[in-house]
Design brief:
With about 375 residues, the chain is of the alpha+beta class. About 25% of the residues lie in helices and about 35% in strands. Among the domains are: about 45-55 and about 305-365, conserved putative lor/sdh protein from methanococcus maripaludis s2 fold (Beta Barrel), CATH 2.40.420; about 70-100 and about 195-225, Beta Barrel (OB fold (Dihydrolipoamide Acetyltransferase, E2P)); about 105-195. The strands form six sheets. A six-stranded antiparallel barrel has the order 6-14-17-16-15-18. The chain is rod-shaped, with a radius of gyration of 48 Å.
Length: about 375
């Protein structure tokens, strides 16, 4: 630090004698006032020219986005939305019920059909035993109540064929009824299932369509979006920046707002798949940081660098008409201009290629 001051003393002497007419009195002299004026000290912020690294960096904006999402939509239409179980901002787990449509009496119909199918299946299973019993009865009647001549034998044969035909028809009837009810049951279950929409992944409900409850469902209409923000990636939507990154080489990133505020290290994610968008995963960052979908950050990259060169602080460098200069102090501690030659101008320092020597102290802004 250097300073230069000048000191002056102004002595003001004031005296006056006032004669008071008719009273014969003399007023006392006014006191002597001495004022010492000291000008403000001029303070210079100096820094020595030394050797070191000069880095010019660039910044790239990135945004945290989900890698998985579910666009929830109805697979059926025409029914009234009965209840919405979630709202935007809620976290859900895979399998959680999200939305229900009015199902009417479908559950009662399903219960009735299940009973009918079970009953008819049971009756169908009894037919073999019943047919066997009727045939045995026919045989006993033939033995004990006929002469077992040819006429009786023909009658028995006709009776046995009639019994077999009767049970064939019964089996067909029961099976047809079971098949019909089964198809109807499957359709009802599918319709009932379509009345309930579940989460296919765990994550955050990003958005929900307004005024859903009481509205009429439309097939394929997107009701809400769920994102898996636990497994998100930072994205850079500028493919031209890809050349600044290398596989497995971390880069610095900072977030200045929100619950995720802090400094991070990102690492390129699957660079071989990069096209229009560049992806990065978090390597390190603040403990317990909550990075939400849509959070913005800034990646800082080294665009150009010079190692161990003579350098001057950018805060001490001036430019005019394409020439660069700085200020140094002369022997009288007064500033004087020194024109210099510079190379790479970095973020904090600029490379000096001539006009000033190592160890020279320059005045910073």
């Amino acid at each position: 630090m250097m300073n230069k001051g000048r000191k002056g003393v102004l002595i003001l002497m004031l005296s006056c004698t006032v004669a008071l007419g008719g009273c014969g009195q003399i007023a006392e002299d006014e006191p002597i006032v001495m004022v010492d004026h000291t000008p403000d000290e001029i303070t210079y912020n100096l820094e020595e020219i030394t050797k070191g690294d000069v880095v010019r960096s660039i910044t790239v904006n990135c945004t945290y986005a989900q890698t998985k999402q579910q666009e929830v939509a109805f697979t059926t239409g025409g029914r009234i939305v009965d209840r919405v179980h979630v709202k935007a901002g809620d976290y859900v787990k895979r399998g959680d019920l999200l939305v229900e449509l009015k199902a009417g009496d479908m559950e009662d119909q399903i219960a009735t059909l299940e009973y009918q199918i079970k009953r008819n299946t049971m009756l169908l299973g009894y037919l073999d035993k019943a047919e066997e019993f009727d045939l045995q009865t026919s045989e006993m009647d033939f033995i004990y109540y006929t002469d077992m001549n040819n006429v009786d034998k023909n009658k028995k044969k006709e009776r046995d064929e009639a019994i077999a035909q009767e049970y064939t028809y019964k089996r067909e009837d029961y099976q047809d009824s079971i098949d019909f009810d089964t198809r109807k049951l499957e359709q009802l279950k599918a319709d009932l299932a379509s009345c309930k929409v579940y989460a296919n992944l765990s994550g955050k409900v990003l958005s929900v369509k307004k005024d859903l409850e009481g509205s009429t469902a439309k097939r394929g209409d997107v009701l809400m979006t769920i994102v898996d923000d636990a497994n998100g990636l930072f994205q850079v939507e500028d493919a031209q920046m890809a050349s600044y990154f290398a596989a497995d080489v971390p880069v610095s990133m900072s977030i200045v707002y929100g619950n995720a505020k802090g400094d991070y290290e990102l690492i390129p994610y699957q660079m071989n798949t990069w096209k229009d968008v560049l992806y990065f995963t978090v390597l390190t960052g603040p403990e317990n940081a909550e990075i939400e979908v849509g959070t913005s950050g800034t990646i800082k990259l080294s665009a150009e660098e010079k190692k161990n060169v003579l350098r001057i602080p950018v805060s001490a460098l001036y430019e005019a008409d394409g020439s660069y200069y700085t200020y140094v102090l002369n022997d009288e501690n007064l500033r004087e201009t020194r024109f210099i030659q510079v190379g790479l101008i970095g973020d904090e320092y600029a490379e000096v290629t001539g006009g000033i020597e190592n160890g020279t102290k320059v005045v910073r802004k």
